[in-house]
Specification:
Shape: elongated
CATH superfamily of the largest domain: Response regulator
CATH topology of the largest domain: Rossmann fold
Number of helices: 11
CATH class of the largest domain: Alpha Beta
Distance between the termini: 79 Å
Number of domains: 2
Oligomer: single chain
Bound molecules: alpha-L-arabinofuranose
Structural class: alpha/beta
CATH architecture of the largest domain: 3-Layer(aba) Sandwich
Order of helices and strands: HEHEHEHEEHEHEHEHEHEHEEH
Strand content: 15-25%
Amino acid sequence: MRLRRSALLLALITLFATMLAACAQAPTGGGAGPAPAAAGGLPALAKKDTYKVGFSQVESNNPWRIAQTESMKAEAARLGYELVYTDAAGSEAKQIADVDSMIAQKVDVIFLAPRSEKPLAQAVLKAKAAGIPVILLDRNVDQTIAQAGRDYVTFIGSDFIEEGRRAAEWLDQATGGNAKIIQLEGTVGASPAIDRATGFANYLKDKPGMTIIASQTGDFARDKGRQVMETLLQANPDVTAVYTHNDEMAVGAIAALEAAGKVPGKDVIVVSIDGTKDAIQAILDGTLGATVECNPKFGPKAFETMLAYANGEQLPAKIINPDRFFDIKNAAEYLPEAY
Ligand code: AHR
């Protein structure tokens, strides 16, 4: 009798452990696998001839954002859709209010470029509760709060970790594996800032000659990048390389280096991410070493994805944009199409 009871207990423990393991392995929606089924109540999108579409932009203070907005507006116009466009001017509170306003205006779908991961995840949940599907553009939200296929449709954007890795790999080769690096980070809490730092740091793990001597946010902005670089240069005059999370900060950092009497491209090697016209020109001028592309032209892919969702197609949790790489070998060829 006692033996049978122990066997039953053992069977129950095994069953419980198996269930726990299955839960731990379940896809989170943040990976590259398919989004979980819409069982979580993801709002549907009706098939219609025309749509009223919201696009919530983060800010418009740099060429990347302007190119992204132009691409979204052009595609909406081409399709004959009404576009409700908002610019959060770099404010999370404003962006949350912008999403509220789109909900009040009863848009059919919201394209959201979230300024940072956590606060804007709440805006995603609000839209879902109002029955409006959300497609994330270029930045992600906190996966512990909102997930693809359950709370939002999908994420379209670059692989930011890979961008950081590619920047680190280029810098490693350009400096012969020896560099004292200043890193200018993007907006605190924004997915590209988090992931670009991670991808860069991961690559450097087994590169003992490559050291990050200082790292601070420049908020993805040219002026802030310049100011932060000026301060960091005073404390770290022995810097030999700069890694910036976007081109605007690279242009600012280059100005600060020059003002401090350093020769960017010779005394200090600079690597960045985006592919803006100013950055490509800086490569041709010899002040910027290279930039990993982060393509801002989302319009066609964004609307194609929206229509695929309306057609009931199964979408992956992430749709990754292919990105190129620009250095002195191809900068002149790319310059005419740069933004
Ligand atoms: O989210 C993408 C990043 O945001 C771009 O690299 C940057 O320029 C923009 O502000």
